[in-house]
User: Fold these one by one.
Assistant:
Number 1:
Amino acid sequence: MRPCNVLSRLASLLVAAAVALPSSTAATSSSLHELHNLVRRASAGSGAPNASLVDTARMGLLSSQRASWEQGTAQSALLEYDAGSWSVFAGGHGNGPPYRPGFQPSKTPDGVPLAVLSMAYHSATAQDGMGKLGMSITGDENMTDGSALDSASCGEGVLLAAFVAKQINATRGFWINAAQDQLDYVLNEAPRTEAGAISHRTRTVALWSDAVYMMPPFLAAYGLYTNNQSLLQTAYDQIRLYRQAMRFPDGPGEGLWGHILAYSANGTARWLDGQAWTTGEGWVAAGMLRTLASIAQSPYSTQMASQKADLVAWTKEILDASFPLLDSSSSLFHNYMNDTTTFRDTAGSTFLAYAAYRLASMSPSDDTHLAAAEKIYQATQGQLTRIGSYLTPVVNALDFGAQGSTSPEALSFTMLLEAARRDYHAGNVTGVDGPGTGRNGAMPGIKGGVAAPVLVAAVTATLLLLLS
């Protein structure tokens, strides 16, 4: 065959390969919008982050007005992506993050994540009179209403700043005072159920799946930083109590969690939102993994082996129940994953893919859902505009049943997935038993990945053409 014909056929094959990759609405008329930013699809095997996508997500995130939980989630995204060695997940080949007990260096290490510390500073300066971080912005807020636990998501960044400022073991100081006030509110002021689960709401007693990302990781991080096993245990206990109350015990949704469970004055519980909200499943899975990482990094890792085993099993339980419900045509979950009449949500889908990568890094045998997570990753690669809105729908962060075009949490989830996927391939995440026990080293591809089979087929076909 003549070279020009080979090149023509190769071009056709590559176009076909690109079309075969899942892209949801990428081919619709919305892709022609003047603000659409066509970013490259990342390699299915290398784990290299999509820098263009991350830069766009970061810009949109930092430009956004943020509520307390969005501020805390943004801190996590910046920490895990920009300064992974300072994240609670650090420790594939080293000694864990600098604040890990028994590994405090004599001087502050290089690479202090200043952006995270800056965000933590603003969380602390906006702390309300009850001790809730990031809650007092305009002066119009009501301290006795709203969420009791969203503010705790900002606590990990404040603890990191306290470590850098050498205040972790101090009796007083700007940073440690802010962290301690937040801890005191969660443990001693927030309402509780009769069983002891800390309410996600301030004025009434209600459990939200969101709370598992906001509160237990903060308690566990506090326990890790201060070498306090009681706080690590409390973090685990809160997840256990939430799971007992909110997990669907049987039926077609077995293993998933409902979203909002409210309690009356006499302790009777009723669902205010009893469906499996996709972002809520992500909040739970990711929150359990962050709590697990703190326990694994602590001196009590061996003593708390059963608690760690539970957290792995409970995370896997959610992923096992979720991924069979992934919509095959778009590689996205519906906003309520057990209701196919709801829209397909990019935000919650991205977050569950993040959890799948983090679990596979910490517990290498639990990699069942990586192929599906990679499909989600590839499906969302070209969906950000140049101003940080999404071409595919994301859930409205202020109205969880409604469709939106962007949100700070969706942009954070995009960065978090990039970090988790990169770290999985690099093998630099702590394992269940601490640094050095997770997945070790890069692998040349993802089992069951999306792009690789298509491209391999294209290359194989081209070689056959050359030989014909």
Number 2:
Amino acid sequence: MLIFLLLFLLLYLSSFALLGRFKRRGREDYYSTDEDEVTVYRISTWLCTFSLAVSIGAVLLLPISIVSNEVLVNYPNSYYIKWLNSSLIQG
């Protein structure tokens, strides 16, 4: 469970950095005068960041599962790979 939390935090922070990179500059004065607009802006930023993190995780699911299957096929007698497969991937 801790591994998935750390992975999601990494995806969330990278999504926040990516959205911050493409954020339009010079428009801060439009929403900074009203507290309601600031709240709406923060909620929308949180939702966009969360959605992007989940989308990136969904896109990476197939390549990660292909790589893990290939590692399992290439090293079928390794106890470490069997442990990773049983406890992390299947659990």
Number 3:
Amino acid sequence: MSPLNLTALALGLFLALMTLLFILRIVLTWYPQVELKRFPFSLIFLLTEPCLAPTRRLIQPLGGVDITPIIWVGLVSLVREFLLGQQGLLTLTLRHMV
């Protein structure tokens, strides 16, 4: 397996994991009584909060609803499609190398 294939695989796994974590974070907003500082929720909090906190400063909650996790799901999905989708940069590069 070439280094570019490994990079594409690792990047795909990372972006899929981040999408899943942001979706879990969206679900957790439906349950405000959940303590994000307790395990296993603390893992989700620690991995997503570095992205959400700066975004939350730019985009305030609308009507008390925090939409920043939704924005990040969209951004991560866009990056994944741009790099690894059917016409993605890494996908096309890997096809031309074969």
Number 4:
Amino acid sequence: MLGTAPSVANPKYAGIVVDAKTGKTLYANDADELRYPASLTKMMTLYLTFEALERGKIKLDTRVTFSANAAKEPPTKLGVGAGNSITVEQVIYGLVTKSANDAATAIAEHLGGSEANFAKMMTSKARALGMSRTTFRNAHGLPNSGQQTTARDMATLGIALREHFPRQYKYFSTRSFKFGKARFANHNRLLGAVRGVDGIKTGYTRASGFNLVTSVVDRDRSIVAVVMGGRTGASRNEQMKDLISRYLLKASTKGRGDLIARGAPASISAGIDTAALQLPKVGPVPELRHDGDTRIALAYATPTPAPVVGREALAKSLAAQKMTIPVPQPAPAVVPPAAIAGAESIDPVTTASTAAMSGWMIQIGAMPDQNAARELLARAQSAGGKALQGAEPFTMAYATNNAQLYRARFGGFDGQGSATSACKALKRKGFACWATAN
């Protein structure tokens, strides 16, 4: 557990808990120190997408064409080929659940003309929201030394998403969606596992460590918490659980609870019926043993869905908490690759939000098709239950005998013992499994 002074043991760590009703800081540890956002970047990409929807610049069924530049982005990605297109709503689901880098670049080029210009729009919006120490250089969060933020700024963005876009915010509670033959689970393992959690976003690169922004609404209290720089996905999640247990009960029950974030566009904030847009309340649930001898009111239960206000398509999709997305169809024309600001590579990471390619992990198979590897991971995750709680699924491509294969792996384990235990649990469910440290 990162505990009371995690920065002593982990110099990358930064954290904050903000009362979402009053804006009061309940906890802060290096909250104003610069950090790399990784895929938390996509929160701003989604903010600008939601803003364009509200202003009528795009619709949920508007098609977004993937340029060669977008299609070649490294994983995690949807794998849409250059010249093909998907809808804006499919882009949203791809960003929220899969954290798809190719979809982030595609919507950036669609809205900004180029990703470089869209990054300038992102930074400008950050300033308008009061995010004074954040600079964006791309729309996805892959390594760039100039792309930096703070835990406080990420909390500000999380609150702004909730307050400024109550109709669209509910996308962040989506558990999974189907794309082609594969079903992708949301990378946020706290959804449905911790009482009151309704989003928001995970992120990972080697330079950033494991990041997480979490929104919690429990009865008459509400917080947004940020953990940055976790050593593993599991330790990051445990630290977030600890922050929720320590500080949720310290949050106000009487704050306004509406529009405390700066910079709401006038066309969005005017006339919002905040009473009709309240986030869900959750009924009594059993206690969960946490951190040895501390009992806290967290529960393995799904929050009751809130009433959805807005478009019929959004209401239907979110009511089910799952989305089936068709295979992309060819677009009329290929959008020329957009110029991207010069990105100085921080590290050779090829994924923005899945597990690190180091430390203890488990492998459950190798497939000739990446979608088949993903399907295997999804089945294992469903069967593994608590044994895989906090683990991060990912695929790793490698070549053998002139053929390409995809290893299906889970990472983010604290050590050999937890990886071995997870394998034993999976073997009992009929899966092949072995633990490895590389």
